[in-house]
Design a protein that fits this description.
Blueprint: H1 14-63, H2 77-100, H3 108-122, H4 124-142, H5 197-209, E1 218-225, E2 229-236, E3 241-247, E4 254-261, E5 272-280, E6 283-284, H6 287-299, E7 304-306, H7 308-311, E8 317-318, E9 328-329, E10 333-334, E11 340-341, H8 397-405, E12 408-410, E13 413-418, E14 423-429, E15 435-440, H9 447-455, H10 461-468
Parallel strand pairs: 5-7
Antiparallel strand pairs: 1-2, 2-3, 3-4, 4-5, 5-6, 8-9, 10-11, 12-13, 13-14, 14-15
Length: about 475
């Protein structure tokens, strides 16, 4: 071309042109190198996940009796074939999870969950056996006595091998099990000062039940456990609700929410801490998890009960199972326009009871011990343009309850998704044990929450991307 068109570059600075081409080539080369490095990094990360998962799965198969070697030491071809197919299926499950959330890895709990799901698919008997052994291990760990000094936290230790000849299991992966210890003086956070078991129990009871007889004082106290983390207690004196947060380096935070039965300001000896719900990271605790942590608190001399009725799904009740203990109830109020909202009077104390709202213990979706109505908790919601306090949003009460039950807890707020409206709903706790919810745009929802919802299959990848870019929402008039 240059020979046929000798005037093509006349009047141009050929050196500058050559340098520009070189810069563009260099830029493309650097981008190509970056892409290759990123691909290599992702491939390496995926390989590491494969390795960690397969090692853990292989150990579990051996412990659960799924060996490819017979009792006489000879290879069992059929067992080897089934085990190999199990790993092929497990790899496909891992790939599916990683492809769903590009750039996201898998933590230890997620890996363990994937192995359990694949066990349930391929080896149901071993999956049931593993569930039983984990449950036994949790109770065994919870009942473990404190060390010879009567303090400290004990992490999951090696569990003695089973002696019945059926299963030999040396250690099971548990979801951050902790036996807590430590002491605190007054409201101060004492780091590394640990006392006897009796003093520990007294200090923890004081933190949880409250020793300040004056009402409406914020409770924000903690036991700092040297080298392990912290037990933090929050609430308001004069009110029943308490939130316990257990944090330790490298572990997902554990949160327990519950209520004090009786009157903590009047009779500490007659009070109990009734656990109603809990989370491990962003995952809601199962009934077994709740029972385990109730045992942990009891092992540390804290009078603890598990509110079984709430865990199993009763709507509208809060507090203990026993009505004699002074159970609080969620209340349904009406404003001057006849619209309902569920905020209790701000001066309602634990001495009295609130009127009970609608209740349907048979509702399978009612997993949280609260009544929620879909009414705007803010006086003005800048996202929806709703300005009247208590104005309705497009969910019926029973639908709002279901959205809340399936919501994800993040930094003190819950986020739920309703497929019918396509909205994300944000719920706030008003410190009276009642949650208030209203729709928010997707870009006002924490990215971790959206990613977890996508991982759980709540919506498609296209919807996920749409929500991330959503800055406004239009609320329809009809309820769903």
């Amino acid at each position: 071309m240059m020979a046929l068109n000798p005037d093509r570059f006349s009047g141009q600075d050929l050196d500058a042109y050559r340098n520009q081409i070189s810069r563009n080539d260099l830029k493309e080369l650097k981008q190509h190198q970056t892409d290759l490095l990123q691909q290599d990094s992702q491939a390496l990360k995926r390989t590491e996940i494969y390795k960690a998962t397969f090692e853990q799965a292989d150990q579990l198969l051996q412990q659960l009796g799924r060996s490819s070697t017979g009792p006489d030491g000879e290879s069992d071809p059929e067992a080897a074939r089934l085990n190999a197919q199990f790993f092929v299926n497990l790899k496909a499950r891992i790939d599916y999870e990683l492809d769903r959330d590009e750039g996201q890895g898998l933590n230890g709990i997620q890996i363990h969950d994937l192995i359990q799901k694949q066990l349930q698919t391929d080896f149901l008997d071993q999956a049931m056996q593993l569930e039983r052994l984990e449950r036994e291990a949790r109770h065994r760990l919870a009942s473990t006595s404190l060390d010879r000094n009567g303090f400290g936290i004990e992490r999951a230790k090696r569990i003695p091998e089973q002696e019945d000849g059926r299963v030999k299991i040396a250690a099971l992966p548990l979801a951050a099990p902790l036996v807590l210890g430590g002491s605190a003086k007054g409201a101060a956070i004492v780091s590394g000062v640990l006392g006897s078991a009796a003093a520990l129990g007294a200090s923890m009871e004081s933190l949880i039940f409250g020793s300040d007889t004056s009402a409406n004082k914020p409770i924000d106290e903690a036991i700092d456990i040297d080298g392990f983390g912290q037990l933090h207690v929050s609430g308001i004196s004069g009110f029943r609700k308490r939130t316990l947060t257990i944090t330790s380096p490298g572990e997902d935070p554990v949160t327990l929410t519950g209520e004090i039965t009786g009157n903590p300001n009047a009779d500490l000896a007659g009070s109990e801490f009734s656990i109603t719900e809990g989370t491990i990271g962003n995952r809601a605790m199962t009934s077994d998890d709740l029972r385990f942590y109730a045992d942990v608190l009891r092992a540390n001399k804290v009078k603890t009960v598990l509110n079984e009725s709430n865990v199993n799904g009763a709507i509208g009740t809060l507090g203990s199972q026993s009505e004699a203990s002074g159970t609080n109830h969620a209340t349904l109020h009406s404003d001057e326009h006849g619209r309902h909202h569920n905020n209790p009077p701000p001066d309602q104390r634990i001495e009295g009871e609130l009127d009970q709202g609608p209740e349907d213990p048979k509702d399978p979706d009612a997993k949280l011990p609260i009544i929620v109505y879909d009414l705007n908790y803010e006086e003005t919601n800048k996202h929806t343009g709703i300005k009247a306090y208590g104005t309705r949003t497009p969910l019926l009460p029973e639908t709002a309850q279901k959205v809340l039950n399936e919501s994800i807890l993040h930094e003190g707020r819950r986020y739920g998704y309703h497929e019918g409206t396509g909205f994300i709903y944000q719920f706030h706790d008003d410190n009276h044990g009642v949650w208030h919810g209203f729709p928010v745009p997707g870009n006002k929802t924490p990215n971790k929450v959206l990613t977890e919802m996508r991982r759980q299959g709540r919506f498609s990848k296209a919807k996920f991307n749409k929500l991330k870019g959503e800055s406004k929402i239009k609320v329809p008039h009809n309820k769903q």
